[in-house]
Write a sequence for this structure.
C-alpha cells in the first residue's frame, strides 16, 4: 500500500512539475520539485537509499523532459549522495538549515547543468543559465520549505495508517 501511495504522489509531482508550474514562473524560472524531493529523500531515507531515489527521480525527469539524457540523473543522484552522507553529521531540521541546503543543492544542480551544456553542447543552451541561478536557488528554497512541510506531514500520516519502517530515519 505504501508503494502505491508513493507512486501516486510521484506521478502527481511529475505532472505538476511538467504542466502547472509554468503558470507560476518568475522570469521564466520555475522551482524544481524533483530536486527538492531528491534532497528530502537524501536527508530522510534510511542508510543510503537517497542516492538511488535521487538518481531514479533524475532519470525519470530526463525521460520526461526530452532534453539531454543523464544531466538530471547525475545532478539529482549527486544531491542524494551528498545529503545521504551528510545527514548523520549535521542537524537538518528547521527553516534555516533546510533553506541553506536547498540553496546549495540548487546551485549544484545549476552548475552541473551549465557545465554539461557548455562542454557537451558547446554552449548551445548554457548562455542564460548562470545569471538566473540565484533566482532559481531562492525560488527552490521557498518552494522547498512548503514541500518539506507537506512531505513531513504525509510521512507522519503514512506511519500512522500503515506502520512500516521503510521511510523511517
Amino acid at each position: 500500500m505504501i508503494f502505491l501511495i508513493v507512486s501516486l504522489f510521484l506521478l502527481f509531482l511529475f505532472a505538476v512539475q511538467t504542466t502547472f508550474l509554468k503558470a507560476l514562473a518568475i522570469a521564466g524560472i520555475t522551482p524544481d520539485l524533483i530536486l527538492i524531493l531528491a534532497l528530502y529523500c537524501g536527508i530522510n531515507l534510511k542508510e543510503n537509499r537517497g542516492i538511488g531515489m535521487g538518481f531514479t527521480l533524475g532519470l525519470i525527469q530526463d525521460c520526461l523532459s526530452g532534453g539531454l539524457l543523464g544531466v538530471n540523473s547525475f545532478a539529482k543522484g549527486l544531491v542524494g549522495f551528498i545529503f545521504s552522507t551528510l545527514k548523520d553529521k549535521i542537524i537538518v531540521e528547521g527553516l534555516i538549515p533546510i533553506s541553506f541546503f536547498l540553496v546549495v543543492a540548487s546551485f549544484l544542480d545549476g552548475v552541473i547543468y551549465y557545465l554539461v551544456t557548455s562542454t557537451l553542447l558547446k554552449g548551445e543552451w548554457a548562455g542564460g543559465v548562470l545569471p538566473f541561478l540565484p533566482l532559481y536557488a531562492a525560488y527552490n528554497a521557498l518552494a522547498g520549505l512548503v514541500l518539506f512541510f507537506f512531505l513531513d506531514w504525509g510521512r507522519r500520516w503514512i506511519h500512522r495508517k500503515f506502520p512500516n519502517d521503510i521511510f523511517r530515519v
